[in-house]
User: What shape does this take?
Amino acid sequence: MIVITGGAGFIGSCLQAALAARGLETIIVDWLGQEGKWRNVSQHAPTRLIAPENLEAFLATTPKIDTIFHMGAISETTATDGDLVWRTNVELSQTLWDWCTRNRARFIYASSAATYGAADRPELFNDDPGNLSQLRPLNLYGWSKHVFDQHVTTTLDQHTPRPPQWAGLKFFNVYGPNEYHKGKMISVVKVKYDEVKSGQPARLFRSDRPDIADGMQARDFIWVGDVVNVMLWLYDNPEVSDLFNCGTGTARTYLDMVHAVCDALGCERRVEFIDMPQSLYGQYQSYTQADLSRLRAAGYTGQFTPLEEGVKRYVQDYLATDNPYL
Assistant: This one.
């Protein structure tokens, strides 16, 4: 039995599809809500669906769980309710860690590249747990993920019991099908697709840094299928435990991304630059690039989808079809 918190969400539902394809028994902990989120799992329903408020009662029955994939979180980088974010992103994660420790279940959880804050050089995206004290997240969401990463490393340093396998994945900029419910937190790839498809130019923020030209802000964009492959590899290799970056290892500019969207649609490359909202000043990551050396050293040999190929697949196999869901 495998539990996926946030299993009806973006990454969680794509993981659910992969585990269901293996014929595994899965339990999703999530709300389906009223915004059509059920469609994310309509083609690969779980064995059971549990509302998040009922999770602790379910765990109290000591079910025979092999692995918990903890994908559920408040993921808005603009979130401001610190108490809610703490309860959801920190306390719940600690509760699940402790449950897995007591019941000898494996625990694989979502961290985030937002923990790196204003890091702007490849060498600063080092996922060694010993470097956590050097990180300065820019927003509440990134800080909450950072706090739990630190909780894990403190547990390890104190040699206290831990799950038989544990892994934290610092997801970079993930894009792909089943993200349509995410509102303002939807991937920039989908946002640019909507703009270009409607006949508008793709709009990008002007740079807020004098050393970076407009459109040359760069992110490590990763296809959601590659993220799922890393999680499946961890599941298949229970001897591997650690904190890992989960990106492609390559930073691509926003102009690269927009051009890929236009090319996938067969449209002229048109870009318009707009001022960055004041609320994002000081919280905007102008550069991210995963250092994959520790993931590779742990034995992961999978390849990552180039941006142009991933965007073309997303646009042509999902967004431009009658059924854009995985």
About this structure: Residues 170 and 245 are 5 Å apart (CA to CA). The longest strand covers residues 106-112. The chain is about 35% helix and 15% strand.
